[in-house]
Amino acid sequence: MAALRTIRLGTRGKPEESRAAILKAAVGEFAREGVAGARTDAIARSARVNKALLYYYFKDKESLYDAVLDEVFSGVRAAVQNALAQPLPPCERLAVYISTHFDYIASNPSYHRIVNAEFLRAGRDPSRMRRVAQQYFLPIFSSVSALLKEGAESGDFRPVDPIHFVPSMISVIAFYFTTAPIMSVLTGFDPMSPERLADRRAAVIDFISAALFTRTKGERK
Amino acid sequence: MAALRTIRLGTRGKPEESRAAILKAAVGEFAREGVAGARTDAIARSARVNKALLYYYFKDKESLYDAVLDEVFSGVRAAVQNALAQPLPPCERLAVYISTHFDYIASNPSYHRIVNAEFLRAGRDPSRMRRVAQQYFLPIFSSVSALLKEGAESGDFRPVDPIHFVPSMISVIAFYFTTAPIMSVLTGFDPMSPERLADRRAAVIDFISAALFTRTKGERK
DNA sequence: TACATCTAACTAACCAGTTAGTTACATACT
DNA sequence: AGTATGTAACTAACTGGTTAGTTAGATGTA
């Protein structure tokens, strides 16, 4: 009987593992069901942990959700900042940024769902989104703006207003994943297959390049 | 006592008014709180009607939500189809379409929230989205595709693949409203003010034109 | 022993949906 | 004309199941 105990996650060694398991389970549950739809029981079950343990490590459901936001947003920020720091000329750096951002979303389905859900929440309660925006979006926005400025000065890019261009760009990168569920239904194909993703990645780079580069389009030999 | 009665909505006259009041209240509530977050009590209160009346007119919460989807989606479809039917050359017709779609979203905040929430739901339960897509999105997609083809044949547009270009275009049109809550917080301006909306509308048309038109950009005198 | 980690069992609040009617008015019968 | 009967429209009050969060205590470890 005491031997069976050792199977359980609880009580034994690494408490960090329990915390991490809860957080990971919470990311999945919040992404799948949204904040209002997420069930704390489901999170506990999926983390193989007693529900009360959620409240031992996190104040309440909302605080757990805050931790989830930090978890997922710190991921993109790191990936994107790394891409933008590459020592490359503007055109290539832009392409690397787009690819990186695109691939991050493609390989982290939870991330995209959580961002969208949070944008919806922001309408009613902007406080959380304000923090996230300051901490994670603003640095990305600044770096991309700097890249646009650099490209305009070197003559590679049209001069554009970042405040309009950056959101437009991001929308083209991200929207594919928003519409993937219906695309799947309408076309019968799987929009998340490697081939389709490669196709789309190319189309996104083409679309943004066409909108931004000074070089006349359709002229790459 | 009998005189007071005439104030109430119930029992007497126009039952259509009650149904419409419920539907309208439901649009607002579902848009504000999402499907999981929406409360039937709140809908009833906001419609000034007893909760049981929701179940008199609609089977259950889900059916009411179906009716809400039809209500909001039939609106865009009508507006957009009308714009696309204008007897104009491709470039102008595209601009009219973009403006119309943009303005519809701008003046129907509930619509945008419901679309986004529904896209999120579609990941888990595509059945509802399948119906909506067939009935409302497909016609729009077809009309815009036809316009793109026509423009390519007349030499006004680059030849593009609608399956990639149409979603990209719509993303640029719509994404502004998704990010409006944080923009408001980050910039301190109201993104929904008439001036900002006019700005953004112009930026959207510029972005899409740059990505699509064969005419070299930056050359409008 | 002292402390951190963890749990079974509980509770108070909430919420979708139901029930058992009431009200106002129309139509039919006398 | 007056009265019974039918019915669409509507409501107050309830129910059963769910859910976030708590409590009191058990378990392992140093």
Please provide a written account of the structure.
Two copies of one chain form a homodimer. The first copy, chain A, is an all-alpha fold and 221 residues long. The first copy, chain A, has two domains: 13-58, Orthogonal Bundle (Arc Repressor Mutant, subunit A); 69-212, Tetracycline Repressor, domain 2, CATH 1.10.357. The first copy, chain A, has helices spanning 2-5, 15-37, 40-46, 51-57, 61-84, 90-107, 109-122, 126-153, 162-187, 194-212. In chain A, helix 2 crosses helix 5 (61-84), helix 6 (90-107) packs across helix 9 and helix 9 (162-187) packs antiparallel against helix 10. Mean pLDDT of chain A is 89; it is low at 1-12 and 217-221. The interface between A and B is large, with 56 and 55 residues. The structure holds a DNA duplex (30 and 30 nucleotides).
